């Protein structure tokens, strides 16, 4: 808890050589106040240091909580993939798949969901156009360090650059696509570009570049092709 700063006292009337009357008494009072003022300055500096230390420790604790939350998200994604595996998602093999059909990628053993219907000749982990990572309550954490980033759907993108970061988000093609983005720099000039898709908020449909001026974590879920809404 922050500590309350010490209370100072106003200085007495300063002695003036042009006013001899009461000069000695005023000088004594002023010097006595100076002694107390020195103690006040020392106490004030100690108070500032204590509060600054507490603020720093709180920031460190908050960063630790954020890291733990990211770990929880990754763990949730792993649990989702395990659940999908248990449900019988077959190992991917080149062939035709229907939209929404799951398959396990041989390269990383994760389960992916087909975005489109048709031939799928490429490992799902290497084909984000036609496949998205399966999730159930948690998206895999993916860090980006640059000032620009083109992200993938089905992930929790985390942007670590101290400068403003401009993000390009793919246009959804079906309902229930998900994307989350978190900017760790605390700025109000970060942005995400949803291209030709729309994002409805407060009765208005936005598109193109949207500035994240409220420093919030952006959570999107599609309600159909080319249309996003904020995920609760």
Describe what you observe in this structure.
The protein has one helix and 16 strands. With 232 residues, the protein is an alpha/beta fold. The strands form four sheets. A seven-stranded mixed β-sheet has the order 6-8-10-15-16-12-13. Strands 7-9-11-14 form a four-stranded mixed β-sheet, with no helix packed on it. Strands 2-3-5 form a three-stranded antiparallel β-sheet. It is elongated, with a radius of gyration of 30 Å.
Overall geometric form: elongated
Say how many strands there are.
16
- Average per-residue pLDDT, rounded, comes to 83
Low-pLDDT residue intervals, each spanning 5 or more residues: none
Structural class: alpha/beta
Percent of residues in helices comes to 25-40%
Gyration radius, to the nearest Å? 30 Å
**What count of helical segments does DSSP give?**
1
**Biggest sheet: strands, sense, closure?**
7 strands, mixed
Total of domains: 2
SSE order, as H and E?
HEEEEEEEEEEEEEEEE
DSSP strand content: 25-35%
Distance between the termini: 32 Å
Provide the spatial order of strands within the biggest beta sheet: 6-8-10-15-16-12-13
Q: What characteristics describe this protein?
A:
232 residues, Jelly Rolls, seven-stranded mixed sheet
Task: Present the secondary structure layout.
Layout: H1 23-86, E1 95-97, E2 102-104, E3 111-114, E4 118-120, E5 131-133, E6 141-144, E7 148-150, E8 156-159, E9 166-168, E10 178-183, E11 191-193, E12 198-201, E13 204-206, E14 209-211, E15 218-224, E16 227-230
Parallel strand pairs: 6-8, 7-9, 8-10, 9-11, 12-16
Antiparallel strand pairs: 1-4, 2-3, 3-5, 10-15, 11-14, 12-13, 15-16
């Amino acid at each position: 808890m922050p500590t309350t700063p010490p209370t100072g006292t106003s200085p007495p009337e300063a002695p003036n050589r042009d006013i001899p009357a009461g000069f000695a008494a005023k000088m004594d009072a002023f010097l006595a106040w100076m002694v107390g003022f020195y103690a006040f300055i020392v106490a004030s500096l100690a108070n500032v240091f204590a509060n600054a230390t507490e603020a720093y420790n709180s920031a460190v604790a908050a960063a630790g909580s954020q890291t733990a939350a990211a770990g929880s998200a990754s763990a949730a994604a792993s649990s989702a993939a395990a659940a999908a595996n248990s449900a019988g998602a077959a190992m991917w093999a080149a062939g035709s798949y229907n939209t929404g059909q799951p398959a396990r990628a041989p390269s990383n053993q994760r389960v992916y969901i087909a975005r489109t219907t048709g031939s799928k000749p490429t490992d799902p982990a290497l084909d984000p156009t036609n496949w998205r990572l399966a999730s159930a309550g948690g998206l895999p954490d993916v860090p980006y360090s640059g000032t620009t980033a083109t992200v993938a759907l089905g992930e929790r993108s985390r942007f670590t650059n101290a400068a403003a970061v401009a993000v390009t988000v793919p246009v959804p093609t079906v309902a229930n696509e998900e994307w989350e983005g978190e900017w760790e720099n605390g700025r109000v000039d970060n942005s995400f570009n949803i291209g030709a898709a729309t994002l409805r908020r407060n009765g208005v449909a936005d598109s193109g570049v949207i500035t994240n001026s409220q420093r919030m974590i952006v959570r999107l879920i599609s309600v159909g092709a080319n249309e996003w809404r904020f995920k609760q």
